[in-house]
From TrEMBL:
It is an enzyme of class 2 (transferase). GO terms for cellular component: mitochondrial intermembrane space; mitochondrial matrix. GO terms for molecular function: ATP binding; metal ion binding; nucleoside diphosphate kinase activity. The chain holds residues 102 to 315 of 316 of the full protein. Belongs to the NDK family. This is Nucleoside diphosphate kinase. Its cofactor is Mg(2+).
């Protein structure tokens, strides 16, 4: 049945005010997965009080590593042929057409994600690094999460990353610097869209909000 909350019901879930809903993208890069640092990174964000709203492990592939595309892509939800644009006029059983976005993670995703860096001399090495093994993509939410996360991650260059930051504590070299974090609220919105589908983000109410934010 549908649950209807009374306006003054103390158990009614409260929508967080918008300033608490700022989101940022964090990637735990392949070096960190190989070095079993995923939990250490997650722990820092949990301990700080940020809220995890999306997470997945994925391998980004170069085109040569990808299997040839299937001729027809069945709908991932109903396994019927109601794919992209409803070419067949929707699902034969009347289930609403699911619009599939291609989410096979390939080099194109990294080209979008690192659009500003494509002309840099280290870009080919960066692509090789980011496709060398699985990475963990996460979305964290909270007050000023973009700025706080950049502070927690530290300098791009490990040598100047402050002790106590993720890179300052776990990374030895700029080319193996453990994590990615969005650098502005606008960038975060774009990057989250590159890495996640809308329904992969989970809205939930954390019980400690009044103790975390006052
Ligand atoms: P950040 O990740 O701190 O936002 P940038 O956007 O400048 O830094 O660079 C993106 C990523 O490219 C870095 O995190 C790092 O993995 C890689 N990178 C940057 N500069 C170099 C470099 N000089 N040599 C190798 N890799 C680099």
């Amino acid at each position: 049945g549908v649950c209807v909350w009374g306006d003054n019901d103390p158990l009614r879930p409260r929508a967080a005010p918008p300033e608490l809903q700022e989101k940022t993208l964090v990637l735990v890069k392949p070096d960190a997965v190989q070095r079993r640092l995923v939990g250490h990174v997650i722990q820092r964000f949990e301990r700080r009080g940020f809220k995890l709203v999306a997470m997945k492990l994925l391998q980004v592939a170069l085109p040569t590593q990808l299997p040839p595309p299937p001729l027809r892509v069945p709908c991932s939800r109903c396994h019927a042929e109601c794919w992209e644009g409803g070419a067949k006029g929707g699902h034969p059983l009347g289930v609403p057409t699911v619009t599939l976005r291609c989410h096979q993670a390939d080099r194109g995703l990294l080209d979008k994600h690192y659009q500003q860096l494509q002309q840099k001399p280290f870009y080919p090495a960066l692509l090789a690094y980011m496709t060398s093994g699985p990475l963990v993509a996460m979305v964290w939410e909270g007050y000023n999460v973009v700025r706080s996360t950049r502070a927690m991650v530290g300098d791009t260059n490990s040598a100047t990353a402050a002790a106590g930051t993720i890179r300052g504590d776990f990374s030895m070299h700029v080319s193996r610097n453990v994590v990615h974090a969005s650098d502005s609220v606008e960038t975060a919105q774009r990057e989250i869209g590159f890495w996640f589908q809308r329904d992969e983000l989970v809205a939930w109410e954390s019980g400690d909000r009044d103790y975390t934010y006052g």
